[in-house]
Amino acid sequence: MSRLKSLQYYLLARLFLAPVMLWMIVTIIFGLMRATPGDPVDAIVGSKASTEIKNEMRKTLGLDKSLWDQYTDYLGKLLHFDLGESITSSGLKVTKIIGDFFPATIELATGAIIIAFAVGITIGVIAASKPGTKTEGFGRLFGVISYSVPIFWAGMLLQIVFSVGLGWFPLGGRFPSSLQPPDKIFGLYTIDSLLHFNLSQFFTSIYYLALPCLTLGILLSGIFERIVRVNLKENLKSDYVEAARARGIPERQILLVHALKNSLIPVITVLGLTTASLLGGAVLTETTFSWPGLGGRLYEAISARDYPTIQGIMVFFAAIVVIASIVIDLINALVDPRIKY
After folding, report:
1. Are 28 and 314 in contact (CB under 8 A)?
2. What digits encode the pLDDT tens for the residues 210-269?
3. What is d(CA 287, CA 301) in angstroms, rounded to the nearest whole number?
4. 96-335: which CATH number, 1.10.3720.10, 2.60.40.420, 1.10.357.10, 1.20.1250.20?
């Protein structure tokens, strides 16, 4: 079987399994929401409301039905791409909530992944190029610390230092309340401001985006640092590198052109796994910095026991992770001809 045929069969298999994976995730989320203590009716009418009012609200929300009926109703809506309505936001559609809040999360995640790539790969290359030295020791220490430090703790620490202490960055938010944000085109303030040729709004958006992106990006960079450092050290010992040295190719060119190119292939694989960490980290980062993204909205929904919003956002995140993993696998196979499926 040719490599192209094998790749096509793999893609078809993954596309077939993707709905099964999403169904399993939906089922787990649905079960966990009903298993955890707390009643969403209390969050709406208050715990001191009369039993009659609570029962009426429970009937309105469909929570008076059996768990099986609630489950089948929810699956039926999902098949029609209906994520339901929020029970704490006056019947606002969950799809509308995602559309309103997800652009802010995209902006945060994009900035964070750029910082993670730049910092992680730079430190990884420097550490691998000087094995057995303090520089490599620093790279190892950076990888361990950046991966293990809790995001919310790092965020609060950076707020204390750079916002409260030095006053270099705002404490939170996405745009100053005293100014008009960019008119919505895509919902991405940086892109929308550029499309309106408003550099003032663009730099203001970057200013508010900087510290949250720095927090999430640095903590994710340790993943890329370790992958690049370990693989680059191995590639620098390989035969093709020795052959390049024998031909008199400068060491800098060998490092950056020959060895680093092959060392970055595993980074593509890790990128798919990082998507889940990125979305999970966005929830904590957005909460810490009062960033009006989908992660922060998910936290509010969890606090209010808003079942449809929680389930809808989690299913949306799960779909992103599943799609990203398929795309990354395909890119990896195209970049590295040694990979076979």
Report:
1. no
2. 999 998 888 888 888 888 888 888 877 777 777 877 777 787 777 777 777 777 777 777
3. 12
4. 1.10.3720.10
d(CA 253, CA 301): 52
- Structure tokens belonging to residue 317: 């995140």
d(CA 160, CA 155): 9
| Helix, strand or coil, per DSSP, at residue 93 | strand
- How far is it, in rounded angstroms, from Cα 123 to Cα 141? 11
Whether residue 258 contacts residue 240, with contact meaning beta carbons closer than 8 Å, is answered with yes
Give the whole-angstrom CA distance, residue 339 versus residue 341.
Answer: 7
Which residue type occupies 198? N
CB 174 within 8 A of CB 104: yes
Residue ranges per domain, the chain? 38-82, 96-335
**Residues found in the chain:** 341
User: What ranges in 130-188 are assigned the alpha helix state H?
Assistant: 134-148, 151-158
Q: DSSP labels for 275-313?
A: HHHHHHHHHHHHHHTT--SHHHHHHHHHHTT-HHHHHHH
